[in-house]
Amino acid sequence: MAKDIRYTYPALKEFCETAFQKIGFSKGDSEIITDVLLLSDLYGIASHGMQRLVRYHKGIEKGLIKVDAKPEIVFETPVSLVIEGNDGMGQLNSYFAMTKAIEKAEKSGICIANVRNSNHFGIAGYYAKMAADKGYIGFAMTNSEAIMVPTFGKKAMLGSNPIAMAMPAKPYPFFFDASTTVVTRGKLELYNKMEKPLPEGWALDKNGHGSSDASDVLKNIVAKAGGGIMPLGGETEQLGSHKGYGYGMVCEIFCSILSMGITSNHTHIDGKGGTCHGFAVINPAIFGNPAEIEEHFSTFLRELREAPKAEGAERIYTHGEKEVIAYRDRMENGIDINVNTVAEMVDFCEFVGLDVEKYLGKLDLEKKESSYN
Amino acid sequence: MAKDIRYTYPALKEFCETAFQKIGFSKGDSEIITDVLLLSDLYGIASHGMQRLVRYHKGIEKGLIKVDAKPEIVFETPVSLVIEGNDGMGQLNSYFAMTKAIEKAEKSGICIANVRNSNHFGIAGYYAKMAADKGYIGFAMTNSEAIMVPTFGKKAMLGSNPIAMAMPAKPYPFFFDASTTVVTRGKLELYNKMEKPLPEGWALDKNGHGSSDASDVLKNIVAKAGGGIMPLGGETEQLGSHKGYGYGMVCEIFCSILSMGITSNHTHIDGKGGTCHGFAVINPAIFGNPAEIEEHFSTFLRELREAPKAEGAERIYTHGEKEVIAYRDRMENGIDINVNTVAEMVDFCEFVGLDVEKYLGKLDLEKKESSYN
Predict the structure, then answer these.
(1) A284 to chain B: nearest residue by CA?
(2) In this structure, what DSSP letter does residue B197 have?
(3) Which of A7, A64, A243, A352 is the most exposed place for a label (fewest CB within 10 A)?
(4) pTM for the whole thing?
(5) pLDDT of amino acid B21
(6) Most A-contacting residue of B243, B269, B304, B319 (CB-CB within 10 A), to test interface
(7) Nearest chain B residue to A208, by CA
């Protein structure tokens, strides 16, 4: 496996903000996109951070993502918002939606917002955290290109359909962000790069049978030839496949159904995107004293962390704990970026005319074909 | 395995309503409890139907469930309700909470209600369906005696923590009701009765290792000696254990945390119950035209049912389809009640002084020790 290259957070921030401005986004918009991407890298979720830069850029080049699009509110009540994303950048549509939802929840106690005709929005948790940072409960979800095969099916019909929830707690907030598939496509790509067989219970071949062949499964996904990733709970009802499929449906409802948007099985077909998102904000004050609720919740989280461990296990985590640990480490020691991702960043600089050495330092990378060829 | 005895729905309804009146509930309250229990049997979920009668009765005898308790609203806003259950019957507290939540959602568009200090409420889906029957989206959840072992733990800290969601659709509503554990305790009891080894990925022994020994796992659960059931996704992160654990947390938050109630790890200890529930109602009209949204949703559900099947599979179900099929069958052909459950119903009649033959017919059951000994 290729080595990583370590950058400080400020260095990546400067590069990323410059990069998005170079593509045509305003300074403010570039800051938002950068903040979403880098939180992912800081949290140790490399698949949704800098690694996405070239994919976003290509999406813009192909016309899938429109740089100058503005989100529009097409329907609203004191507790809801429906937003037309106009094929804009997912991060900008989502930041707008969550900001407005927080404003409404400040007055009404709750707001549910959904966005249609948007694009990949990065990590769902970022937006849930926006609410938690204000003392509220936040939810964020998104549909995506179909990759989840429903129980007893052989064709992907739902996206990886992540659901994220964040809520204030001490010493750190609850932060739960997970796809409703067993794993994400990124995991399959990683196993493919390592030429390792996939664990049982992850993926399906084009006939709907379990497959350990990452390369074959990925090829079929790209060709839309059948197969894909199993719902959380696997492929049979014995381990709860229908439950993961059910949570995938919950996500789909709050993203594409209530917004009258495009369901996962129809997005990303014939050059059209159509990704939809769902958000919710709940002010805990509508249930009582927020400080007492936070205290009560923090006690339960502590009890979970302190509960007896399985033989051989050292630690029980509460959701968000690993992210806090990763964040502190990377802010102090820097962020390791995969060398292939750095190569893509170099290609990007060369393509758009940014000084490689200024932003990415003196590099000695193996020469490969550009990501843009 | 013991045979089943078939009853018509009206016969069971008459028996059940009479039984609960005999215990001390009003006619109206007995009708509500009966309706919840029998919907479960009609849906084919025997574990939460008539099978529960003697357990509820024993709960009342022990003082865990208070027959004359009345739910009280202790906090409310136009979009929320917190209800003190006063150790009353779970079905009555929940019916009250959902009825009030629907009333508020009619005005405000959304309402979240939670209930503390209640008891086992039957199937979560019943209450979600109450909202869907009115054209709304409904959610219902409950915590319970701890049975889910968090990832890397060996002690049960969360309940089976089911989450149910229902939403109008054609030709039948979406109805998703599932525990956030891989399976429920009822499944373990069934395997124990059949003396079959548990499938891999269901349960943990008292050291936190996978176990196929149903009898041992159940014994440990009763003795609170350690072990329990795995979260949806199993015991390791490889298959997503942390995700099932996360959904269990979402349930816990909406039940016991926001209501300042008792978390699963502290319920049912020292003769105290303390079960908490969470409910939500969302009027789809806050997002646009409900008829158009229902149409859009129904199209997606149809596409799922019609999607290509895995080799060897005959049918892809959407959530709620199996329940509708079971309901129609049982309304027409009657409901099969397990002979052991019928024996319990006989014991109940003898204990409270109800005419067995009048309500349960002429029976020729093997004589066993009474359930009340």
Answers:
(1) B258
(2) P
(3) A352
(4) 0.97
(5) 98
(6) B243
(7) B310
Which residue's entry shows tokens 């497959």?
A211
With an 8 Å Cβ cutoff, is A165 touching chain B? yes
Judge whether A317 is closer than 8 Å to chain B, CB to CB: yes
Cβ atoms of B42 and B9 within 8 Å: the answer is: yes
A174 Cβ under 8 Å from any chain B Cβ = yes
ipTM of the shown complex: 0.97
* Token pair belonging to B303: 């596409």
Q: Do the chains contact at A153 and B309, CB–CB below 8 Å?
A: yes
Crossing angle for the helix pair B214-223 and B185-193, nearest 10 degrees?
130
| The pLDDT value given to residue B144 | 95
B314's CB contacts (< 8 A; 6+ apart) are A152
Q: What's the pLDDT tens digit per position in A201-258?
A: 999 999 999 999 999 999 999 899 999 999 999 999 999 999 999 999 999 999 999 9
Which pLDDT tens digit goes with each residue over A104-131? 999 999 999 999 999 999 999 999 999 9
Does A308 sit within 8 Å of B226, measured CB to CB?
A: yes
Nearest by CB: A310 against B75, B208, B287: B208
Q: Is A4-62+334-360 assigned to CATH 1.10.1530.10?
A: yes
Residues of chain B with CATH 1.10.1530.10: 4-62+334-360
pLDDT bucket at B2, cuts 50 / 70 / 90: low
What's the number of CA atoms in the CB half-sphere (13 Å) around residue A157? 28
Instruction: Assign domain B72-182+230-286 to a CATH class.
Output: alpha beta
Amino acid identity for residue A102 in this structure: I
Shortest Cα–Cα distance, B155 to chain A (Å): 6
